[in-house]
Design goal:
By secondary structure, the protein is an alpha/beta fold. The protein folds into 4 domains: about 190 residues, no CATH class; about 325 residues, Rossmann fold (3-Layer(aba) Sandwich); about 180 residues, Rossmann fold; about 140 residues, 3-Layer(aba) Sandwich (Rossmann fold), CATH 3.40.50.11610. Helices cover about 35% and strands about 10% of the residues. Strands 3-9-10-8-7-4-6-5-11 form a 9-stranded mixed sheet. It has a 7-stranded mixed sheet with strand order 15-12-16-17-19-18-23. The longest helix is centred in the first third of the chain and has 24 residues. The N and C termini lie far apart (about 100 Å). E1 component of the 2-oxoglutarate dehydrogenase (OGDH) complex which catalyzes the decarboxylation of 2-oxoglutarate, the first step in the conversion of 2-oxoglutarate to succinyl-CoA and CO(2). This is 2-oxoglutarate dehydrogenase E1 component.
């Protein structure tokens, strides 16, 4: 053996390319050159390979072993010398460099301001190749692995030319970060086969020109007709409209029947008119303030949604644009949830038939955390929708004052998508054909792999952030370039004129034709179908109820309870139940038999079982929903003897009946914002199901406050969107500190008005059963928010007898005092409260022997406030001089300030309304156990303290002089000591109070 022969060129920087070549050989031996086939075949026969896992053992070591045994001439069958082999490896390295780095050198910036990234890596000289090698032929692979399927070898000049066209023109492809080999090969072969070059017919090109013309002309028309009005123009990114319309027109050939779009406000008006077919006349009415008032509050025109049926070559396509507030990307998980529900309704082929499309802004895409959560959900079992097409309208600026050096730490705004191995297709927005080409590639990829794919449409923004913004103040260089830019439509028209596809007169005619149609309030092309109705459409007429008191039968027969319990307390033979789960199941059997009271877990499970067996699906998600954060639900049973994650799971509620409705329980990703938004979207599209989002602890919902504010509480009044989402929030002061006590009841109540939500704080297990059943049995579709006590889940006194679940029983908005007195006339004080604090106060009353003096009434439904029921309970105590609201929360939190005016409305004569609870606090709760206990003791003492009642009711009636003027703070702090009601008869829905004294007819002016 020639000791001088050197195999060093097989290692170092060349090693990854040799390994890739070897990987190709393992997958398909014929895909590599014959001499490499011989080389690798010899390699595989070596003892060091036989003894090891070839796929994972470093190839370099095997090369080294082989090099010690055979000279290079023999190793490569004598076909080439060492120098030529080194050149071949250099060519492979150059090809790989283009595949990895080519996007950085692609011509994707219409303004030409962005410099190429790492272009030296694409230089032949960087890889040891020179001008002398340009006419030398090199192997480019065979079959699926070839750079060119028509040839086994190409000259170096031809190879570079093909690589440049594929990776460095108007399309830049990022895919080498993808871990799955099949996906990488699919993308590589797709773009290298076509050289990333579209091939459209003259008719198709004219259609694309018309789309770009429509997008530009609408924006310019609005700009001159409604000067200075905000519309968030898409000028500079008109190709996005052409690409979106291409998607809708071509997705049907792969079985897509419905597209759901989520986007922020930029370009939204253009999508409404030029994609969904909204009449321009209707849009003009909105600009002119003449639009019909349909909802109590409504929303601005660039937040509104729309849906229509669009005619395509493959049949009708139902297209929905979701409503979205100014919180930009927050709509994305809402769309995904809606799509999941729609897919489920269609059955087995649902994921192929319903396609989510999300349109992003560049800065928002990578800047807003909800997108991380959305991507994180995209491939999980409970949330996947089979892949989403993302289109980033990348105007390279974000807000007007932004600079990419300040808005992200990544190279591209699309880099966030790499977390889920999504391919990214960068495309120059000035090339609408290239945009349509990558849209088709995205559709094909999504169909093939059921994964997300991102189109980064690099463009610019002709105007400011809005039409009143002057971007030249902070972006002078960019806007000098924009001022000199001819416009995407003009550039594309010139290109087609040069190709002979259209004449200049035809191109100008498209503009005039569209403007003439706008003048008439009409469309140029009518693609919207007016008389078509999809068979998958939901009939919302069944869910229009507005009366929260709508009566339904939520109780069950004893036989039904026994039958259901037998099913959900069954575990398969030989199933290794955990001792805790075994004990829970045994207890539930006893509860169903009536020998033990129902706890909360049993009440909840019985509600779900009754629903799925009667055809109502149930979906629960949260960070620990299967077991229940407090180990009370046990909806999912785990075999303690299981050997893998794929087996040993049994969900009893999925085995209730042969043709039962779906029961889904999901342990969600560790995110509140994206998951709650997802479930909101799901519930909006599945009114026939019980959809639940559960917080691990109630105040974790803080992370989803945007969803609560912008969708849950106001979606109906802004957009007319009915939603029956149920939210379960663990809440209760048990000495667990600030983050594990309060679900921020005060925030929810502050959002309540116009009967928009239901706020419930139950104190008994049966109440949980009835409120869940009631949520789907009624025609009333409003968000339901349940403040569920952790302590009460196993608290004996809060359990319920079997009789509370039987036919004829129902949810009680108010629960009266349970003490049986000979005469209620002895009651001097009525305490109203909600939740678990009732049991603390009831215990304190018993210890003090105050049963005849104090009545305790539980307000289980805090909103809509049950006036009639509360008034009926208060009327039982005609001699009560005081009404006390008692709560666990600090005075500035909890229900006090949102319930106080309602109690004062119910107070009669000289009754005073007082407060008992923790003092005002900046923190939701204390963290010291001793302080917690002291506060609890004090609030119970305050609630039961009768020492101030020294005057009989008859003696309290006297003339009251007008009170002096107070500051708002003084009024708040002193109101409970005033002898009369300082708040007037505020309406049920008002969160504002008129400060008046009805006895003296004097209105107090509050100064601040």
């Amino acid at each position: 053996m020639d000791e001088k022969l050197n195999f060093s060129y097989l290692f170092g920087s060349n090693a990854p390319y040799i390994e890739e070549l070897y990987e190709n050989f393992l997958h398909a031996p014929e895909s590599v050159e014959p001499y490499w086939q011989d080389f690798f075949a010899e390699l595989a026969a070596q003892p060091s390979f036989v003894e090891r896992d070839v796929a994972h053992y470093p190839v370099q070591e095997a090369f080294a072993q082989l090099a010690k045994q055979r000279p290079v001439a023999t190793a490569v069958s004598g076909s080439i010398d060492e120098a030529l082999l080194q050149k071949q490896i250099a060519v492979l390295r150059l090809i790989s460099a283009y595949r990895i780095q080519g996007a950085g050198a692609a011509k994707i910036d219409p303004l030409g301001l962005k410099q190429s990234r790492n272009p030296e890596g694409l230089s032949p000289e960087e890889h040891g190749l020179t001008a002398a090698d340009m006419n030398t032929q090199f192997g480019v692979g065979m079959g699926d692995f070839a750079l060119d399927s028509s040839a086994e070898k190409l000259t170096l000049a031809e190879i570079i030319n093909k690589l440049q066209k594929t990776y460095c023109e108007h399309i830049g492809v990022e895919y080498m970060h993808i871990g799955n080999r099949e996906e990488r090969l699919w993308i590589r072969n797709r773009f290298e086969r076509d050289l990333s070059t579209p091939n459209y017919s003259a008719e198709q090109k004219r259609y694309i020109l018309k789309q770009v013309t429509a997008a530009e002309t609408l924006e310019r028309y609005l700009h001159t007709k409604y000067v200075g009005q905000k519309r968030f123009s898409v000028e500079g990114g008109e190709s996005a409209i052409a690409g979106l319309n291409y998607l809708i027109q071509n997705a049907g050939k792969d079985g897509v029947e419905e597209v759901v779009i989520g986007m922020a406000h930029r370009g939204r008006l253009n999508v409404l008119v030029n994609t969904l077919g909204k009449k321009p006349a209707d849009l003009f009415a909105e600009f002119e303030g003449r639009a019909e008032i349909k909802f109590p509050s409504g929303d601005v025109k660039y937040h509104n949604g729309f849906s229509s049926d669009i005619a395509t070559p493959n049949g009708a396509m139902h297209v929905t644009l979701a409503f979205n507030p100014s919180h930009l990307e927050i709509v994305n998980p809402v769309v995904e949830g809606s799509v999941r529900a729609k897919q489920g309704r269609r059955g087995e082929n649902g994921r192929a038939q319903v396609l989510p499309v999300l349109i992003h802004g560049d800065s928002a895409f990578i800047g807003l955390g909800v997108n991380q959560g959305n991507f994180n959900m995209s491939r999980t079992r409970g949330y996947t929708t089979g892949g989403t097409v993302h289109i980033v309208i990348n105007n390279q600026i974000g807000f007007t004052t932004s600079d990419t050096r300040d808005t992200r730490s990544t190279v591209y705004c699309s880099d966030i998508a790499k977390m889920v191995d999504a391919p990214i297709f960068h495309v120059n927005g000035d090339d609408p054909e290239a945009v349509c080409y990558v849209v088709q590639a995205a559709l094909d990829y999504r169909k093939q792999f059921q994964k997300d794919v991102v189109i980064d449409l690099v463009c610019f923004r002709k105007l400011g952030h809005n039409e009143g913004d002057d971007p030249t103040l902070t972006q002078p260089m960019m806007y000098r370039a924009i001022a000199q830019h001819k416009g995407t439509r003009a550039l594309y028209a010139d290109k087609l004129i040069q190709q002979g596809v259209v004449t200049a007169e035809q191109a100008d005619g498209y503009v005039q034709e569209y403007r003439d149609a706008l003048d008439k309030g009409e469309h140029v092309e009518q693609t919207r179908l007016t008389n078509y109705e999809s068979k998958h459409r939901v009939d919302w007429s069944k869910y229009q109820g507005q009366d929260w008191r709508e009566q339904v039968e939520s109780g069950l027969s004893a036989d039904d309870i026994a039958r259901l319990a037998e099913k959900f307390t069954y575990a398969p033979e030989g199933f290794g139940l955990h001792n805790t789960a075994k004990r829970v199941i045994q207890q539930r059997k006893e509860m169903a038999a009536g020998t033990q009271n129902f706890d909360w877990g049993m009440a909840e499970t019985l509600a779900y079982a009754s629903m799925v067996t009667s055809g109502t699906g149930v979906r629960i998600s949260g960070e620990d929903s299967g077991r229940g954060t407090f180990s009370h639900r046990h909806a999912v049973l785990h075999d303690t003897n299981r050997q893998s994650h794929e087996t040993g799971i049994y969900i009893p509620l999925q085995h209730m009946a042969e043709n039962q409705a779906e029961f889904t329980v999901i342990d969600s990703i560790l995110n509140e914002e994206a998951v709650m938004a997802y479930e909101y979207g799901y519930a909006c599209s599945a009114p026939d199901k019980l959809t639940i989002w559960e917080a691990q602890f109630g105040d974790f919902a803080n992370g989803a406050q945007v969803v609560i504010d912008q969708f849950l509480s106001s979606g109906e009044t802004k957009w007319g969107r009915l939603c029956g989402l149920t939210t379960i929030l663990p809440h209760g002061y048990d000495g667990q500190g600030p983050e594990h006590s309060s679900a921020r009841l005060e925030r929810w109540l502050q959002l309540c008005s116009e009967h928009n939500m239901q706020i419930i704080m139950p104190s008994e297990a049966s109440q949980m059963f009835h409120i869940l059943r009631r949520q789907t049995l009624r025609s009333y579709r409003k968000p339901l928010v349940i403040f569920m006590s952790k302590r009460l889940l196993r608290f004996k006194d809060s359990t319920s007898p079997l009789s509370d679940f039987l036919e004829g029983t129902t949810f009680r908005p108010v629960i009266g005092d349970t003490v049986q007195r000979a005469d209620n006339g002895s009651v001097k004080r009525v305490i109203l409260c909600a939740g678990q604090v009732y049991y603390d106060i009831a215990k304190g009353r018993e210890e003090r022997g105050l049963e005849n003096d104090v009545a305790i009434v539980r307000v289980e439904q805090l909103y809509p406030f049950p006036y009639a029921e509360a008034q009926a309970e208060l009327a039982k105590y005609p001699n009560a001089q005081e009404i006390v609201w008692a709560q666990e929360e600090p005075k500035n939190q909890g229900a006090w300030y949102q319930t106080r005016h309602r109690l004062e409305r119910l107070a009669t004569g000289s009754q005073k309304v007082l407060y008992a609870g923790r003092p005002a606090s900046a923190s939701p709760a204390v963290g010291y156990a001793s302080k917690h206990n002291a506060q609890l003791k004090q609030l119970v003492e305050d609630a039961l303290d009768l020492s101030q009642i020294v005057i009989q009711a008859a003696q309290q009636v006297e003339t009251i002089a007008p009170m002096p003027q107070h500051t708002l703070l003084d009024m708040v702090e002193t109101v409970s000591q005033q002898p009369e009601n300082p708040f007037g008869n505020a309406s049920d829905d008002s969160n504002e109070h008129s400060f008046s004294n009805s006895n003296v007819n004097h209105v107090w002016k509050v100064t601040t």
